[in-house]
Design goal:
Blueprint lengths: L5 E10 L3 H14 L8 H4 L15 H10 L7 E7 L4 H11 L7 E5 L21 H15 L4 H4 L6 H6 L7 H9 L6 E5 L2 E2 L3 E2 L2 E4 L1
Helix pairs in contact: 4-8
């Protein structure tokens, strides 16, 4: 079966249980299924099969984050690829399907950038002030997140030129839609990291719950 085009696999699922328990769980599942499947597969209930591929290794969007959060590399990790052929609403809804995993002690991380325009990035230059369009878009996204207004975040192209400049390609933005889809109405928003790097890459990180 031909593979679908995939963007960077920046959706990371970390399981808060010992690796040996995860192995036992996967073996148990393998007894019931001819091909072992990731723990998220049953929750997602996708029409297309999930390809279990260990040949790639962890993408930079995964290990660059986990290396700081879990420096001992002592948790099992399931990495999900982002399907570039699907509209933003697909990714938001898929995030909602992952929500029950939270009750099983699963940490879901969406690794990307609110603003990621490398064409405007100040490569090798002295530090520069953030572009006004980047600041405006980041501020608007934060306002929408604080107000639980996810609709405009999904339909981000409707947010105007600032959004189009901030998100020239969707791969670094789409992980936000997964974690927004997982978010519960009662989850508070915490800004963990704030700021824009060299003009046009937002390093803002948020936590729900």
């Amino acid at each position: 079966m031909p593979r679908k085009p995939l963007l960077h696999p920046h959706l990371v699922i970390g399981l808060a249980q010992p690796a040996e328990q995860l192995v036992v769980e996967l073996l148990r599942r393998a007894d019931a299924h001819p091909v072992p499947v990731p723990p998220a597969a049953e929750v997602l209930d996708l029409a297309d099969p999930i390809l279990d591929d260990e040949s790639w290794g962890l993408d930079h969007g995964t290990w660059s984050v986990l290396a700081h959060v879990f420096p001992d590399a002592d948790i099992p990790v399931v990495q999900l690829s982002v399907d570039e052929t699907q509209p933003p609403s697909f990714h938001y809804e898929l995030g909602g399907k992952l929500a029950p995993l939270r009750d099983e002690g699963v940490l879901v991380i969406g690794s990307g950038n609110l603003v990621h325009n490398l064409h405007a990035y100040s490569w090798g230059r002295r530090p520069v002030e953030p572009f006004e369009w980047a600041v405006r878009f980041e501020t608007e996204v934060r306002r929408l997140l604080e107000g639980h207004e996810h609709g405009p975040l999904v339909d981000y192209e409707s947010l105007g030129p600032d959004a189009l400049l901030s998100i020239p390609t969707p791969d670094h933005y789409l992980p936000l839609l997964y974690v927004a889809g997982i978010r519960r109405n009662s989850d508070p928003l915490t800004i963990l990291v704030d700021g824009i790097d060299l003009g046009s890459v937002s390093m803002t990180a948020v936590r729900f719950g």
